Amino acid sequence: MTAPGPTRKPANRLAGWLGAMGLIATVTVALSATPLWSQTNPEEEGSVSETEQSPPQPPTKIEVNPEEESQERTPTAPTTTARRTQFTAQQVVTMNTFDPTVTPVPLLDRLTPEVIQRAFDGVDRVEMVDDDGPIAAAAFQDGQMVGYIFSTFDVLRAPGYSTTPFDVIVGVGMDGRIAGAALLFHREPYLLNDRARTGRMIEYLSRMTGMEGRLGAEGAMEPGFVAGATISARAIRNAVLEGARMVLRYRTEDILVTEPTIDIFNFKPMSVTDLAKDGAVALAHVTNADLRAAMTAAGLGDLPPEVPMQGGPDDTYVDFAVGFANAPVVGRNGAGPESFERLTNEMPASTMAIYVGSLGGAYDHRGTKFNNLSNGFLLDRVTIAQGGREVKFAKSQTILSGRTIADLLILPPD
Q1: Are 245 and 213 contacting, i.e. CB atoms less than 8 angstroms apart?
Q2: 293 beta partners
Q3: Phi/psi at 195 (nearest 5 deg)?
Q4: How far apart are CA 153 and CA 99, in angstroms?
């Protein structure tokens, strides 16, 4: 049984945006030969445990709340049908009993009575919502719909300190406030095998109940409460708040669309290749043969490129992607959640940005000269041209991704 979705069914509003905006990305050829992989600093103020060492091997199962160790456990088998269950037993929610990154598990199968109790206390029935929005289940109490329950893994696919996305089941009321949260899966190295930190993380999540479901909302505890795992705590909190806003906004805010429009609200996890097939980003694939032909046409055929080619004529010299970063499906998928959150939280509200990514090959769009004062800290391999105007970008106008060669270029306000 499924719950009906909203009457608003927006089409894919990202398709064709690149041509409509008239943006052209130009990749220059002869620059530094050494790609630069920028690394984020894992050390946070007040944290002495989250470092760049390899995470330990995870156990097969960890209790979510170690303080409930003495309580009797009553496992409940999940089903895929709508549930009408009165929750009276205080059951322990366990996590890491499955890995959604390996074997996807439908949302309803994860919504056992104890999970629902943690995510949305008082709910006695859940039904999957059938619409084009973020995956969610409608939550009912005494026959009346009171909100939604969703998975951060399904909606955002957000990683924490580990590069593996975690899974938090979250309830959000129709008033836009967090109803509860249950941590089901993670590979955060400084929570695994640490009962004290795990207990603090559970308390940290429980204190989010009543917070406004909006990224940047204030209230509850600061991430530093989970000492030694503050990066993990901050990432989990952001995913809970951002996911709640996305799930509710799609279904409660009427947006009249009368012409092709860029969707700057909704998100779903997609690869850059899938984004290109959907028309959300433009891809440029350049082989070694393509480069040699271009250099010959420019009268440079006898000169070697400054970034040497690798492999044969048909091997990739560069795969380059470009898209409008303010659309979450582009900016977040392309550059990663950390970079996208910097764009949405740390920049003025009217800021616009372009996503650029180098997906493979010997060449990349960054180079190394953007670190040089003598070069004006320019990313001199990328130029945006529109309407006869060319825009170049300095390092200060760029949000660099720390995990891939994919960045957000901040457009000038005019």
Answers
A1: yes
A2: none
A3: -65, -35
A4: 11
Q: In angstroms, rounded to a whole number, what is the distance separating the alpha carbons of residues 35 and 364?
A: 6
Residue 393 contacts residue 409 (beta carbons within 8 Å): yes
Per the document, the length of the chain is: 414
Q: What mean pLDDT is predicted for residues 293-322?
A: 94
The residue type of 86 is Q
Give the span between the Cα atoms of 268 and 152, in whole angstroms.
11
| CA–CA gap between residue 348 and residue 352 (Å, rounded) | 9
**β-bridge pairing 2-4 and 125-130:** parallel
Q: What is the pTM of this model?
A: 0.62
Question: Do residues 278 and 324 make contact, with C-beta atoms less than 8 angstroms apart?
Answer: no
| Count of CB atoms situated within 10 Å of the CB of 168 | 24
Separation between Cα atoms, residue 167 and residue 150, nearest integer Å: 10
Cα distance between residue 157 and residue 23, in whole Å: 29
| Main-chain dihedrals φ then ψ at residue 124, nearest 5 degrees | -120, 0
**220: alpha, beta or left? (left if phi > 0; alpha if psi -120 to 50):** left
**One-character DSSP codes across 364-406:** -S--SGGG-GGGTTB-TTEEEEETTEEE--BGGGEEE-SSSSE
Q: Are 395 and 379 in contact (CB under 8 A)?
A: yes
pLDDT tens figures, 162-193 = 889 999 999 999 999 999 999 999 999 999 98
Of 103, 359, 65, 341, residue with least CA distance to 200: 65
Specify the pLDDT at position 255.
57
d(CA 414, CA 408): 18
Q: What's the mean pLDDT when you consider all of the chain?
A: 79
Max intra-chain CA distance, the chain: 79
Burial of 258 (0-12, 13-18, 19+ CB in 10 A): exposed
Question: At 121, phi and psi to the nearest 5?
Answer: -60, 135
Strands (E), 237-376: 281-287, 316-324, 353-360
For residue 154, the SS3 value is: helix
Letter for the amino acid at 234?
R
Exposure string of 78-114, with b = 16+ CB inside 10 Å and e = fewer, is eeeebbeeebeeebbbbbbebebeeeebebbebbbbb
**Assigned token pair, 124:** 């006695």
